[in-house]
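Lecture notes, unit on protein representations.

Consider one protein chain, 605 amino acids long.
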Amino acid sequence: MADVEMMSSDSESIDGDSYDFRSLLSSLEIDFLIRNNGDQVKIDSLEGKKLGFYFSDKEDEICQIFTQKLVNVYKELSSKGDFEIIFASWDYSDDTFEEFFSEMPWLAIPFQLLYLEDTLDELDDFFFQERDVPRLVILDEHGMVVTDDGVSLIQKYGVDGYPFSAERFKELKEEEEKARREQTIRSILASPSSSRDFVISSDGNKVPVSKLEGKTVGLYFSLSSCKSCVDFTPKLVEVYKKLEEKGESFEIVLISLDDEEKSFKESFGGMPWLALPFKDKSCEKLARYFELSTTPTVVIIGPDGKTLQSNVAEDIEEHGIQAYPFTPQKFAELAEMEKAKEMVQTLESILVSGDLDFVIGKDGVRIPVSDLVGKNILLYFSAHHCLECHHFLPKLIESYHEIKAKDEPLEVVFISSDNDQASFDKSFSEMPWLALPFGDARKSSLSRRFKVIGIPMLVAIGSSGRTVTKEAKDLITMYRAKAYPFTEERLKEVEAEYEEMAKEWPEKVKYRWEKKRELTLMHMMHYRCDECNKYGQVWAYRCKERDIKLHPKCALEAEAKGTESESMDEETPNEGWVCGGDMSIGFCSSSPLSRGRQISVLFGI
């Protein structure tokens, strides 16, 4: 998260000088900006205003999410009349620019001008070295760059960050630090700005915040449209009622993230605890204050008003009432219990539950779990609606067939997060392995055991039945079948092979579009090659200043061909290159990896 010290260094990195943006745009032959209705706005009309230069790309999901946040902030500040945003698009076509810009109430540099004489590159050089989106550079009314990390600041402070000065950010940071030092249940839940000193019950009664003082309080951050929240709430209700029956001094307060009052009322109506009122401004502030990154989240506030635990949702899922009173000592006890359980873990202890002692193959044929004992097992958590799952599946199938072709004792078990039988059937029809039946009760216990908070996820179970790694997805993505059987010893061998391979390549290369800069060889897990536009892993040549990344093969070919390579067809630069075989110089894949919609984007974590 950007803080005052970081902002100071950001300004210093671009000399901390006052910049004349009019001269900059004029030098790039830009004398007007546009609105999404086609109106032209003269550059001179922005003199004396605070400005945000917004670099963004419609194809990037994080950009889409942040843009909505920025639109809300912009609209709230529009009445002040002294703040304007200028959109500099990184879109690849005029159509995507127009579509994205139609959602924005601010100004933009005309798309056709951005790609004349490398205008966008000049803007990049002017404001910052590393290319990344979304990016928001904020200038004060004198043209001084306040920060080039406006995205983090808008996410964290929203409208409260106005007038976006270093002094204001310092003030907010000091207020936040003071709030943490002096935190009480009242300072968390009451709202002095609106004179609200109460929370509400599901029947609409107001309950004074003072009634919660001295109690252990769980702040339940939830979203009614979130399936994980819907699944978790009954478990939390069960724990809450058991503690209530035992007379424990415990309360829960719902912090709803819903946008629609109807959804809020429907979900809160079935809960036995308290809540902040719908759309109370404290909901968003608390999400930022507690650095919310996922839902469901249950923050535990101790009887003294201090934060005891940042999120016990998984612990409640796994241990139920045993997790209470959520103290460090209690969690130390639970951790010891988990270690002991892992030491005696077997495949049957994972996959067998009462009469559920089988998995299914094609056509629903039942296969006893006992038939899988002694094999290496991959538990594949996935769903048909998950875009990243669709991108990962071909890699897993390819690796599966390659490993099985060597007569290795491997099997994969699909564990579905699909919403209905039809979606499950579609998912499973594409897979050559086994599965748990749709709606199988074991799915919940497996998700809790392996702490599945996102899909796709791939857990490797060794022949002994003990867990080898929960990171098998990343290993398949990087190394494909070479990663098998996913042990630390095997990974060391694979990494040594790639280190040996890289010894044959130069540390730095020149690139035809970047004659002034060199690209350096480095490890990268996932990236898109700027030469052939395909995805790669393991090794890349990268220019950090321009954020250009190339497969080693592309980089070495481009350097060897020199200026001759400028006439190459950009659409098919590496036709015939089969990745993952002998020519595995930075594996290629045409499947992108989604960055995912994260609550952290909404609340600035």
